[in-house]
C-alpha cells in the first residue's frame, strides 16, 4: 500500500464514490418521479371532481413551493449541523407524507401533502450536491454530479410510464396509486443511505480534524488527505451570500437555474394539457416521445459535462432553448411535426443543460456555506418553477398558446444575458480552488490547476 500522501481531489474513482453517487442520485430520482406523476394523476382526478384551473395550478406547484421552503430554510441548518443526519431524516418525512396521499378527498389536502413532500425534497437538494461534491475527485466531479439531474430526468420519465400504465389498469381510481407509488423508490433509497458517513470537508471546516481523518482512512485509505481546506465558521447566514465576494455567484447560480426550470416545469408538469392546446390529440404517444428525448438529453449532458467549459455549456444551451420555444410563439398554427420537433429539441437540450444545476452551484461556494448557497439557488429556481406551473394553465386559457410560448422564450433570453455577464468556469479546478479563487474564474487559473 502506498504511503505517499494523496489529496482527496486527486484520487482515482473508487467503489465508494460510485455508491455515494447512487445514494445521492436517488433523491433526485424521487424528485423527478413526484413531479412527473402529478401531471398524469391530475389528468385522471381533475375531471372527476371538476378541478378548476386555479387548483390545478396550485397542486401542480405545491411540491415546487415545498422545495423552495426546504432548500431555503434548511440550507444554513445543514451547513451548521452537518450533512449526514439530514441525509436520512428527510426521506423519512417524505415517506410519511407520501403514504397519507392514499386518503386524500379534497384538493387542499393534496396541496398540503405535496407541499410537505416538496420540503423533504428541498432538504435533499441542499444536501445532495453539497455532500457528493465534497467526496468526489475533481476529474470525475462534473460527470458524477451531472448524474443527479440526469437521474431526476429518469425519475420523471419512469413516472410518466407508470402513471399511464396505472391509468390503463385501474381506471378512475388509479390516481391514488399513482401518487402513493413514490413510496417505493423512497424506501429503497432510505435503506441504502443508512450508515453513510459525514463529509470529511465539513468536519475539517468545523475543527473536527480527527473525525475527518477517520472518515478519510475508512473510506479512502490511510494516505489520503484533504489538502488545503480553509477553516470555516460555525454559523452561516443567507445574508452572507450577498456580500461583495459572493453576490455575483449567488445571483448567477439562482438566475440561470430559475430561467432553466421555469418554462421546463410549466410545460412538462402539465404536458398532456400543453400538447392538446397545440393540436396533438394523442397526448400519451407525444408525451412519451418527448420524455424519451428528455432522457436522452440527460444522458448526453453527463457525457459532455467535462468536454465543454461550464460557461460555454450554459450560454449556448440558453440560445437553443430560446429559439425552440420562440418558434412555437412566432409561427401561427404550427403543424404537428413542427410542434414535436420544437418540443423534442427543447426537451433534449433543457435536460442536458439541466445537469449544470447539480454541478455549478456546488462548485461555486466554500464548504462552510456550500449547502446554504446550493439551497438558496435551488429555492430561487423553485420560485420560478412554481410561478410557471401555476400560471401556465391560466395563460393558456386567457392569453392563448402563442403568447404563452413567447413568455417562456423571454425567460430563457434573460438566462442567456445573465450567463454571458456572470458565468464563471469551474471545470478542472479542485473544489477549494473553484470555491475560493474569487468571483470570476479565468482560463489562466484553470491552466495553473492542471
From TrEMBL:
Transmembrane domains' residue ranges: 21-45, 57-78, 85-105, 111-132, 144-165, 177-194, 251-275, 287-306, 313-331, 337-360, 372-392, 404-423
Domain Major facilitator superfamily (MFS) profile: 20-427
Subcellular location per the Swiss-Prot or TrEMBL entry: Cell membrane
Alphabetized InterPro entries for the sequence: MFS_dom, MFS_sugar_transport-like, MFS_Sugar_Transporters, MFS_trans_sf, Sugar/inositol_transpt, Sugar_transporter_CS
Highest rank taxon of the organism: Bacteria
Cellular component per GO, a single term: plasma membrane
Topology of the protein relative to the lipid bilayer: Multi-pass membrane protein
Protein name per the record: Putative MFS transporter
